[in-house]
Amino acid sequence: MMRVIETVLPGVLILEPKVHGDSRGFFQETWRADTYNNIGIPPFVQDNHSRSSKGVLRGLHAQRLRPQGKLVRVSRGTVFDVAVDINPHSSTFGQHVAVELSDSNHRQFYIPPGYAHGFCVVSDDADFLYKCTEYYQPGDEIGVLWNDPAIGIQWPVSNPLLSAKDEALPTLHTLAATWKEEQW
User: Of the residues 107, 114, 142, 158, which has the fewest C-beta atoms closer than 10 A?
Assistant: First the structure.
């Protein structure tokens, strides 16, 4: 049986799948449609895998018109993972949830469509796997600056390795001001 932990953000879940281990290693179901559908997680259309080194921070990313829900996990290493409510009409706008995901805790993190997502690698390297409910659309991508003080994420690094794209992301309030109400 999988343990489902609800968070302060509606629909954002921390999942602890059952892990069967012995002296040979372990076995874990990482996805089963009926189990995940029963807790409100929709079907996925795309799987992704990234490898990053210590100190790399990716995010905070979202898609504007075709938002992606994401089920994320780590198969090697450890990451600090974050979901942020970027909907200015939400009662939890600007709030975030952070969780450590690792190959030893086997946790999964579900981020529904409409939230920004990012992670930072805290081990020497990490393999990060995620399933998406929508296809990636490069022209639809938006994001929020990783260290926006209005969000107040306590990242485990002070000087992360960022892409040029992530360094140039706007603050949460700048992003929210650019959207028309019908786009939310």
Answer: 158
